[in-house]
Amino acid sequence: MAMLGKRRAPAIRRERQSVKPAAKSDDGSLIVERLAHDGRGVARDVEGKTVFVDAALPGERVEVAIHRQRKRYDEAHIRRRLSDAESRVEPPCAHATRCGGCDLQHLHVDGQREHKRQVLVDLLKRQSIEAPDDVPMLVGDSAGYRRRARLGVKCDAKGHVHLGFRARGSEQLVDIDSCHVLAPPLASLLPRLRAQLESLEAPRHVGHLELLLTDADVVTVVVRQLRDVPEDAQRWRAFAGRERLACALRRGRESTDLVWLSDQPRLVTAVDGGRRQLSLGLAPGDFLQVNAEINQRLIDTLRAWLAPHGSERLLDLFAGIGNFSLALADDVASVTAVEGSNEMVERLRDNADHNGLSVSALQADLNDPGIAIEGLIDSHDTVLLDPPREGADALCRRLAQSEVAQVAYVSCDPASLARDAAHLLAGGFVLSHLAMADMFPHTAHLESLALFQRPERLERSARSADRERLRRQQSDLDSPVPGGKR
User: Fold this and answer.
1) Across 221-229, average pLDDT
2) Is position 396 annotated as part of the catalytic site?
3) What family name appears in the similarity comment (predicted)?
4) pLDDT at res. 470
5) What is the value of pTM for the model shown?
6) Is 468 annotated as a binding residue?
7) pLDDT in tens, 234-243
8) Is 476 annotated as a binding residue?
């Protein structure tokens, strides 16, 4: 247990690992041994070559067809399933076998979550990092959770309009008229959106549709209009009026502009800031966590893990519109939020003002942190990271050399988290807490939350905070009160 949460030193010499014999069958079928990180079944043929099988589960015996051969492995799909795993369920969505949006609907939800938890632990182990014994799972509704989505639009050679998501491993669109994971106000709109596209003068000039559901059940449809068609703009304006939704065109191919066809709505999302409810304004295209319930679970877990005592100086990097910055602002002494997008920095400032919070919001390129960011790191004791899939390699290398006491890391890619965690642990941090967040049920995608701490600096900071608290209490006692009484 002494090494828990620390990076283990790699052995100088490693024994050659024996290869487990392939599970064999008498009829040429394959027996699935486990799940790969991306959710595909893993089997091996009679020669020992690895075969990744779409939609197969551990323990199942399957006849497969190879659709892609590679030097070290093959990729296949099931021709016939000869046995079923106990964890197999009937997919709740009619489009599950073709649509690439959800790739794990054939696996029971509990099995999906345990698989994702194990993927997180395994990727850390590959960096010689031992995860804590308890890795909680932040979970919520597995249906109707998705509050934003992008639907592809294509007009084929015969003039037929296709609306839907991409097929798995393909650019081909799968037509959909329902979606199990879309929020109900968005899912119910799908058939009417298809009819609307079919009524257009030039549907081939529509690239995709962006759907967004914000608080007060405001539905927004943003049409990617590749070429201006005035008649179709009028049709979309009429559609917005009939459906009582907000509608805008994002016009152009290379550079685009956003034109509202309805009254421009005030789009907001609510988060619980602990001491008060916060209302955050946003615009189409701003980053917004797709699952509002899990987003709040992340905020609540962060607050519980950090256990702020009011003296922390928080630096939020990749801050977006203030999702974490503003939610934690009441709990700490100061917050500095940094974001790469100028527009989102302005939104963050507006959100801070609207909620009566004092937050310093700055713009900077966080993928190439310079002297200014290094100065900010040196003047804060708590850092929060919420980077894109590429992670925060350069920042974590710099944080490893800093005096920062704790780093909270919200990750949407477990492999980049594991890489960045190795930098932090090499710099003396300890992995104190780790959680898997099921932000995207029915998919292999997982989010995670990790807290890295330097125990000795936290103790020093806590003692300093206690001294400051006692000093303030004594000052209050020594201050005269009206009427001359003490």
Assistant:
1) 97
2) no
3) Belongs to the class I-like SAM-binding methyltransferase superfamily. RNA M5U methyltransferase family. RlmD subfamily.
4) 52
5) 0.89
6) no
7) 999 999 999 9
8) no
